[in-house]
Amino acid sequence: MDNRCLFCRIASGDIPATIVAEGEHWIAFRDIEPQAPVHALIIPRRHIASLDALSLDERDLVGDLALAAAEIARLEGIEEGYRVVTNIGEQGGQSVSHLHFHVLGGRRMSWPPG
Ligand code: 5GP
Ligand code: ZN
């Protein structure tokens, strides 16, 4: 755990968040500034800076996060259509340096994103 990392602190319960679901290796909570009627963030419990920092022995974890996204979509009743996105690096729009997947739904999504 990195004490300076916001999402590590949410994962440890140090900073409160509205938890949507949890798994052995991940936790999902509501985004504080939702961009859609449903907007959850799925993070690994362990600190990983972004998808770009992922190592080979962490590949199973990404599978867990992808399955978690589908589970959350079902839980939230948006399985008909939703978006899963991860921003990487400042140029990619990442503002918190702890790997996270956004799960967005409950409205029609447009493409391309900005
Ligand atoms: P990024 O911009 O890195 O892809 O996504 C970070 C997300 O974290 C943003 O959508 C932002 O609204 C959300 N966020 C930032 N601070 C907090 C917080 O303290 N609590 C929660 N629940 N979400 C946060
Ligand atoms: Zn972290």
Short description:
With about 110 residues, the protein is an alpha+beta fold. It is built from 2 helices and 5 strands; from the N terminus they run αβββαββ.
Can you walk through the features of this model?
The chain is globular and about 35 Å long. It is of the alpha+beta class. It contains two helices and five strands. The relative contact order is 0.22. The longest helix has 18 residues, at 59-76. It has a five-stranded antiparallel beta sheet with strand order 1-2-3-5-4, with helices on one face. Guanosine-5'-monophosphate binds at residues 6, 17, 29-33, 41, 87, 93-96.
Keywords summarizing the entry:
single chain; 114 residues; alpha+beta; 22% strand; binds guanosine-5'-monophosphate; binds zinc ion
Task: Show the helix and strand layout.
Layout: H1 6-11, E1 19-22, E2 26-30, E3 38-44, H2 59-76, E4 82-85, E5 101-105
Antiparallel strand pairs: 1-2, 2-3, 3-5, 4-5
The structure holds guanosine-5'-monophosphate (5GP) and zinc ion.
